[in-house]
Amino acid sequence: MQSNKIRENIIGSRNIRSFLTMTILILAGLGFLLAGASSYLRINTFILTNTSEIKFIPQGITMLFYGALALSLGFYNLFTIFWNIGSGYNEFSKEDQLVRIIRAGFPGKNRVLFFSYEFKNIKKLKFLNKRGLNPRYNILLVLKDKREIPLFPAQFLLNPAEIEKKATQLAIFLKVPLENYAQ
Fold it and tell me: What domains, with CATH codes, occur in the chain?
């Protein structure tokens, strides 16, 4: 007996890539900030090498700028991990004849993003298969009004065969055609 519901959990910001990016940005930002401060104060504040000999203008001030920028991006990444931005689930229910897409957003009035689409408004599923330097594989929900809704976040890296298998299962479940869109 086939189930009347399919639920796909989405991981969001709490993944290895986000943790690594945050760590690298914060460490590099601190390094650049210390090197820039060292050139301004003429005191070696950086342990790894002597940066007090660097001229403050233009190198030191540039290092301060890049350090502040990297720290800002690193802390932004830290907060997206803390709030788990992008996490949620996709739910396909035969009982309700609905596709529900739920995601966590930034804190505030609209923290939880909720999208609902009726089965009768679904035209087809599209399996996106983009190859090249920046490969991308995704399943798109194509509505009758020609909107294309991605079912997985862009950074969600899965094996193309696994995504194609999921797309096939969903197309059978929703009783809609599946289109393979390769680039």
Answer: 16-83 (no CATH), 86-182 (2.30.29)
